[in-house]
């Protein structure tokens, strides 16, 4: 049954979103399905988890139903879990940023090489938006660039291809699905806002001989967003796309869009997002050389969209590393606040610890990664307490400043479902 809860959410969305998320990655790795919602215990403990969201003080939650078990076939859905969880979020006044596709598709679709995926996914997005018309904030497809890399070039997930053509095909289908889903949702909810969560990357040359490769990679990092927002790619990148399976007509279709005005540029940044490029074109992690604020200003200069910091974390160890990282990311956000760059939210991802991300989900070790605000027993970590204090201290300060920026964040209406 659809959500019939009739008490409306608050009349206006907060202009600064303090968020966390429930990790719901679900790629296939070989013959097994990785299900992070199951691994964290969220499928059974979601009521407890939602209470922790409120305890932390977050007003928003990156969240979505598990795609492989919700989307059963073309036009076939099992909404039972979504009905319960979405109604609960609405009751407690937490704004969901609905994450519809997070690194995996149902078995019946196959993988991201399937050319029917964009059309089929748009139908799923329309069905979700029709069932939950009160939802306004969406991330249709999470981290398109990372998903295409891991599935089409690195050979780790889903289709497990290791080719440039595999990467380009996955990229055009992921971006195509994201754009078609946005249009489908807008037909249901004309004031929908899309907070695209994408990995913010930076490549540094280790020597002059590595400079050309670093520049190429720094062009490629924008590819998913360029195609999503209709931004022209550089000439070498255009040649690369045509050489690896994208047609001129397909590229031209990506350049034609009026969707950008509905979008917020969600950016994900971890200590592993900056890379050192070696002379042999290999890379290794460089640590945070530039930092979030410097890199994000490059993205803003390219797209001129309001920003949200949509993911970050670090392992919570005895040395307080995670708490220090939280402070550092927040300091970068405040630095941006002194610039013309409009910032409307921050996210520690995720609420509860994750599992096996130390091997990018490639190995089934059952190893808990202590990156959550709460551990697997739902006890607060040091960084969880720190984030709660941060929200308490800043939640009544930043919204007034963001009002001066006149951000295009439309108010959530008081629609109810019949």
Commentary on this structure:
With 418 residues, the chain is α/β, with parallel strands linked by helices. The protein has one domain: TIM Barrel (Alpha-Beta Barrel), CATH 3.20.20. It has an eight-stranded parallel barrel, surrounded by five helices. The protein has a three-stranded mixed β-sheet with strand order 10-12-13. A two-stranded antiparallel sheet has the order 2-3. A hairpin with a 2-residue loop joins strand 2 and strand 3. Helix 6 packs antiparallel against helix 7 and helix 7 packs parallel to helix 9. The radius of gyration is 20 Å and the shape is globular. The N terminus and C terminus are likely disordered. Keywords: Hydrolase. Pfam families: Glyco_hydro_1.
Topology at a glance:
Elements: E1 17-21, E2 28-29, E3 32-33, H1 36-39, H2 42-56, E4 60-63, H3 67-70, E5 71-73, E6 76-77, H4 80-92, E7 95-101, H5 117-131, E8 137-141, H6 144-153, H7 164-188, E9 193-199, E10 202-205, H8 211-220, H9 223-229, H10 235-243, H11 248-255, E11 263-268, E12 274-277, E13 283-285, H12 292-303, E14 307-311, H13 321-337, E15 343-348, E16 354-355, E17 368-369, H14 382-394, H15 398-405
Helix pairs in contact: 2-4, 5-7, 6-7, 7-9, 12-13
